[in-house]
Amino acid sequence: MEKIPFISKNEVEEIQKKYPTPYYIYNERGIRETARNLYKAFSWNKGFKEYFAVKATPNPKIINILKQEHCGVDCATIVELELVNEFCNISGEDIMFSSNDTPAEDFRLATKLNATINFDDIEHIDFYKKLNLPFLDKMCCRYNPGEDFVINGQIMGEPKEAKYGMTKEQIKKSYIELKNEGVKKLGVHAFLASAQNNNKYYPLLAEKLFKLIVEIKQETGIELSFVNLSGGIGIPYKPEEEPVDIFEIGKEVEKRYNDILVKNGIKNVEIYTELGRYMLASNGALITKVIHKKDTYKHYIGVDACAANLMRPAIYGAYHHISVLGKENEKKTEKYDVIGGLCENSDKFAIDRNLPKIEVGDYIFIHDSGAHGFSMGYNYNGKLRSAELLLKENGEIELIRRAENKEDYFATLKL
Length: 415
What we know:
Elements: H1 9-16, E1 23-27, H2 28-41, E2 49-53, H3 60-68, E3 72-75, H4 78-88, E4 95-98, H5 104-112, E5 116-119, H6 122-130, E6 138-142, E7 149-151, E8 154-157, H7 168-180, E9 185-189, H8 201-220, E10 226-228, H9 246-261, E11 270-273, H10 277-280, E12 284-295, E13 299-303, H11 312-316, E14 322-324, E15 334-339, E16 348-355, E17 363-366, E18 387-391, E19 397-401, H12 406-410
Parallel strand pairs: 1-18, 2-3, 2-11, 3-4, 4-5, 5-6, 6-9, 9-10, 10-11, 13-15
Antiparallel strand pairs: 1-12, 7-8, 12-13, 12-17, 14-17, 15-16, 18-19
Helix pairs in contact: 2-9, 3-4, 8-9
C-alpha cells in the first residue's frame, strides 16, 4: 500500500511560520472516516460501541471528534478518567475502565463517574468491596485463557505470559459473586495479541469469548450482556503490508455470533471494541526538520525530533515509513540512518533506509505515528515534548496542544 502524506511541503512551510517543528499533526477527515467505517462494519449489532483507547492519543480535541462519531472511551488510570470527564464531559456507560494493579482512588473515581468497571483480577472484587463502594448495574471481567493464541498455525500471542486477566475458573466465580452483589449487566473482555494485521484475529477472539459465554450460562445460569473485543487490530506500517478489511472482520464476527450465541438461545449480546492504534495511527504523523548531515562510516540525517518525541523505533525496533516532503516522487538513491539528538545510539527513526537525496532544511513526514506516539513521549536529556496540531476537514490548522517549554520542565522542582 503506497504511503502518501496527508499534508504537503508547502503547507508545512506555512505552518512553520507559526508552529516550528517538531510537532504531531492529526488528520480530522481520516479519523472520522475510520470511525464511520468501523460502525458500518458492526452495524448488524444493535448495541455496538467503540471505546477509544485514550492511552493511544490522550488529547481532548481528538476524543471529542470521536465522541461526535458516537465513540466512548477506554480509560486505565485516574488521570485518564479526569481527562475525559473534565475536558470532554464524558461519563457513565461511555467510559470503559480497564485497569490493572488498580489503586483505590482510581476505583473510587470510576465508580463516581458510573463507568463500566472491568475487573482484571478476582482479588480486585474483594478489594473493591473493602472500599465500601457500591456495585454498579453494569460491570465486566477480564479473561485470560492461558493457552497460546494461534492463527494459521502461528503463535500470535502468549496470554499465559501476560499479567492481565483471570483464569476460566476465576472468572466464573467472579460472575457469581458480582451477580450476588446485584450487578444486572455483566460482560467479558479479553486482549490476546497486539497489532494484528490479520482479518482472522477478531473473529477467532470472538469465537473464544462466545463459547465462554455459552459455557458460563450452562454452568451458572448467568447470561452475559456484552463482549468487549478490546484492541489488537493493527495497521500496515510498511508499504508492502495490506490493511485489514474491517468489513470482512465485522462479517466474520457476525457469523460466529449467529453460529455460537444465537444457536444456543443467547441473543442481544452487545459487541464493544477498544481500538487505539487502528483508529489513530495512520491518521497522525510526526513532522520534523533536517538540521544536520553527517558522513562517517555511515550517512546520517539529523532531525530536530528524537526518540523522546517518538520512542517506538528506539525501544521496539518498530518501522515507521518516512517521506521527504516535496520529494515523494524522486528516486530513493541514498541510504541513510535518520537520527535524533539524544545521548543514546538507539535514537534512530530509520536505519539503512533508502530515501531520496536529503538536504538540510528538508521536512520529514514520519507516517503512522498518530497512536502511541506523543503519548509515550518523555523528557530524557531535557528534551521537551512537542506540540500537537489538527488538520481540520476544511483545511485549517488548529493548535490542540502547545509545545512544552523550559518552564514546564522546571515546574515540579522544589528549590
